[in-house]
Write a structure and sequence with these properties.
Blueprint: E1 2-6, H1 15-28, E2 33-37, H2 43-47, H3 59-63, H4 69-72, E3 74-77, E4 80-83, H5 91-95, H6 105-112, H7 115-118, E5 121-125, H8 132-140, E6 143-148, H9 154-171, E7 177-183, H10 191-205, E8 217-218, H11 227-231, H12 239-242, H13 247-267
Parallel strand pairs: 1-5, 1-6, 2-4, 2-5, 6-7, 7-8
Antiparallel strand pairs: 3-4
Helix pairs in contact: 1-13, 6-8
Bound molecules: adenosine-5'-diphosphate and magnesium ion (MG).
């Protein structure tokens, strides 16, 4: 079982696109996957074909302890469920502001309803901020995956994001690690994309071993800019249902394979010790 927050406080960097299509790729590989939509804009829900009308059961009700996780969860495809969100979720920032332990509300709800035990992957689509919803995600997962659009200011934004994960790791969730950076909206062949990628690689390899991102991998798969990926949400379909042979579908399938391979690497037995003699 793996729990992954798709996080970046910048908007428009492909968090939702990555949450939905990575989840769909993993589900197509036979893994059971649950997406938790933590953005009050509800884009991930919509992208997976759900329009959570006001008053319907959503992740807000889970935060407010007004329903079980399974009351809010909906099956949208084989192996793929979503706990949807809508604008109701915006109230959580205010409602929890004076609640002691507000960082752990989501973690405790998921534990209570044993969600993790029933899925191979739980994927959280974070909102574009570092507020209480994102902190709840960071306290409920062990992995952070960062979608990054390689442009000039991308690395500046990353330092704030890394600072936040370091703080959460120190104070709230010792198991949290940044496990991967996915380069999205990638313009192949441009100098800028290659330069930013190289700067990122240098930054990661020169980081102290005790930072939560020391072992972060830059995924080999580059998610190229592809118009089908931008069209799919309005049809309420993942890229595999909307246009399964387009470059966007190929890229997300490949990213899914890389994410699966990390799990196998992490779970594989240690190599036998070489005999020194
Ligand atoms: P975020 O969740 O970080 O705000 P989104 O996933 O909503 O970002 O993506 C922002 C916009 O870019 C959306 O309109 C989405 O459809 C589009 N988009 C994301 N990735 C790609 C891509 N690889 N190619 C083309 N459009 C993309
Ligand atoms: Mg989004």
């Amino acid at each position: 079982m793996r729990t992954i927050a798709i996080m970046n406080q910048k908007g428009g960097v492909a968090k939702t696109t990555t949450s939905v299509n990575l989840a769909a790729a993993l589900a197509r590989s036979g893994k059971s996957v649950c997406v938790i939509d933590l953005d009050p804009q509800g884009h991930a829900s919509f992208h997976l074909g759900l329009d959570a009308a006001p008053g319907s059961r959503t992740v807000y009700d889970v935060f407010a302890e007004q329903c079980t996780v399974d009351d809010a969860r909906q099956l949208v495809a084989e192996n793929l469920s979503v706990i949807p969100s809508n604008i109701d979720l915006a109230a959580v920032e205010v409602e929890l502001s004076n609640t002691p332990g507000r960082e752990f509300v989501l973690r405790d709800a998921l534990n209570h309803w044993k969600l993790q035990e029933r899925f191979d992957y739980v994927i959280m689509d974070c909102p574009p901020s570092l507020g209480v919803l994102t902190i709840n995600a960071l306290c409920a997962v062990t992995e952070v995956l960062i979608p990054l659009q390689p442009h000039f200011f991308a690395l500046q934004g990353l330092s704030k994001l890394f600072e936040t994960t370091a703080l959460v790791t120190r104070r709230l969730n010792r198991d949290l690690r940044v496990t991967g950076v996915a380069l999205c909206l990638y313009e192949s062949g441009t100098r800028l994309a290659a330069d930013v990628t190289e700067d990122l690689r240098l930054f990661l390899t020169s980081s102290d071993a005790d930072t939560p991102w020391a072992k972060a991998k830059i995924f080999k798969t580059r998610i190229r800019r592809n118009i089908k990926l931008a069209e799919a949400p309005s049809f309420g379909q993942s890229i595999f249902d909307y246009a399964k042979t387009c470059p966007g579908a190929r890229d997300y399938a490949e990213l899914g394979d890389e994410v699966l391979a990390m799990a196998q690497a992490a779970g594989s037995p240690l190599p036998l010790q070489q005999n020194a003699a």
